[in-house]
Amino acid sequence: MPGKRARRHFSQLSEFERGLIIGMKTAGWSTRRVAGHVNRSECAVRNCWQQWTREGTHARKTESGVTRKTTRREDRRIVRQALVDPTVTRSTIRADVGVVIVPLTISRHLAEANLKSKRPFRALPLLPEHRQLRLQWCQARSMWNVTDWQKVVFSNESWFALGTDENRVRVWRRPGKRYNSVHTVLRHTALTAGVMI
């Protein structure tokens, strides 16, 4: 039970507890005695009483934190842009909305709409002829042993970015929608080096 008591000790005061604290303090109880009675810290009791004497209210403040830079309408516009064109960049969205906001704010608004920045799924447009050629290639090498495969060199491209801009296309999409949209799947239109079609 000590863990439970500690959690309650530091949790938010309820409206009833705030009223109880003010009533007991008005009756002349000491801060220590009130804190022991309501099982709260003396600091919480003192803060509640100071708010009552200073503001005449014991209600918790609902507004806190940084003020919003965008309106609800602008938030909807940001999300709509990412849904219409998933490859749109944050700087393009910011220029279109016309409000001075940092890119992190745009990402936060899109995350609230469950849109994340992901790399698009890349797909090869394989025709039936391509599939037939791949099958023939595999069948021709199905009887190869380890010595035969040791003569083949398998290579993979490594990609390095020296700057901050990767020049990679990213898309805004919801989790589980990787293959669903035409915009979130990039299809190769030409032969790529190292890709056997």
Element-by-element helix/strand order: HHHHHHHEEHHEE
Number of strands: 4
Strand content: 5-15%
Helical proportion? 40-55%
Principal-axes geometry comes out as elongated
Mean pLDDT, all residues? 77
Instruction: Identify low-pLDDT runs.
Output: 1-7, 190-197
Biggest β-sheet strands, sense, barrel: 2 strands, antiparallel
Terminal CA distance reads 66 Å
Structural description of this entry:
This protein has 197 residues and is mainly alpha-helical. 47% of the residues lie in helices and 6% in strands. It has helices spanning 2-10, 15-26, 31-38, 42-55, 72-84, 90-97, 103-112, 128-140, 146-150; strands spanning 116-118, 121-123, 171-173, 185-187. The chain has a two-stranded antiparallel sheet. The protein has a two-stranded parallel sheet with strand order 2-4. The longest helix is centred in the N-terminal third of the chain and has 14 residues, at 42-55. Its main location: nucleus.
Task: Name the descriptors.
about 200 residues; two-stranded antiparallel ribbon; two-stranded parallel sheet; 9 helices; 4 strands; about 5% strand; disordered C terminus
Quick recap:
This protein has 197 residues and is mainly alpha-helical.
Strand-helix topology:
Layout: H1 2-10, H2 15-26, H3 31-38, H4 42-55, H5 72-84, H6 90-97, H7 103-112, E1 116-118, E2 121-123, H8 128-140, H9 146-150, E3 171-173, E4 185-187
Parallel strand pairs: 2-4
Antiparallel strand pairs: 1-3
Helix pairs in contact: 2-3, 2-4, 3-4
